[in-house]
Here is the input.
Amino acid sequence: MKAMQITAFGGPEHLRLADILTPEPGAGEVRIRVTRCGVNPVDRSQVLGRWTWLQLPHIPGSEILGVVDKLGPRVSTVNVGQRVGVALRLFCSQCHYCLRGQEQLCMADPRTTVSPAIPGAFTEGGYAEYTIVPALNAIPVPAEVDDDSACAATLDGVTAWHMIERARISAGDRVLVVGASGGLGTLFLQLVRQRGAVPVAVTGNMAHLAAFQDLGAETVIDRTAGNVVDEVRRLTDGRGMDVVLDPTGAASWTASIGALARGGRYVTCGILTGAEVTLNLAPFYAQEQEVIGSTGGSRRDLVDCFDAIARGTFKFPIHARYPLSGAADAMRALSDPSRLGKVLLEIG
Here is the structure.
């Protein structure tokens, strides 16, 4: 089969298309013929070498859609020919959290204290014509959901869905969406609006103003034009934001925390711009603010996400599509200032 492999850590230039043996599923596993794979910042982190245990060459790709091609022994949950999305979290089914349906918190692998157990980071990923996944991670896709949306749902969709739940957003809340043009940001705007809250987008590209408004943004703040915190205070008569959704990490931490209202909640699911931050506890406790972590989501979250897409509840803007051979260019497209939404690989 053809697969795009990381041959050295560094940048997208180290991705190489190779002909390798087609893998065989083991007990409890299925082989998937990959039709779509999302190109996500987490893939870029793999190329950069964030996961130090990766053995090279390695196939990245964590946002996977395809068709079940072959069953391993003792698999009865899916059938050959079934279209499936790959649930984002690898899990043991036996620990305290798995038994509660919180697979995203599975504690079987000690590496998950600092890194999520996901395909493409803990296993070979979806930048390939075929991939092997646990059968329990293969979630059937409703017929009403198109391939692009089903693929994007497996990572960005489920991550946004779960993070909105963690944020406890209520009608009337003012919600700051940092990184609004990304795959997550475009979903946050829609999901916040559907809860009756007021989304405010933060962006570095005001060319997307009309698109943000179409996705639900009440107001759009240009982070390149001035101080984000000052603008938030102006918009809210000095009160600040009830919730800040910030998937970007350290670079936006100071502004995001500074934008919080009393009783406000800062919610994050990523460290793309760094993991180390500082926090002054005095205003934090005095104003009863919260910092909330969110990581991926469960299989139940993915099923709910698929159902919501089938009902037309939200959509995935697609920035660009590339063939498997164009994976390096697709990864570079993540940094394109004009990007709005998802970058996808069309494979099969």
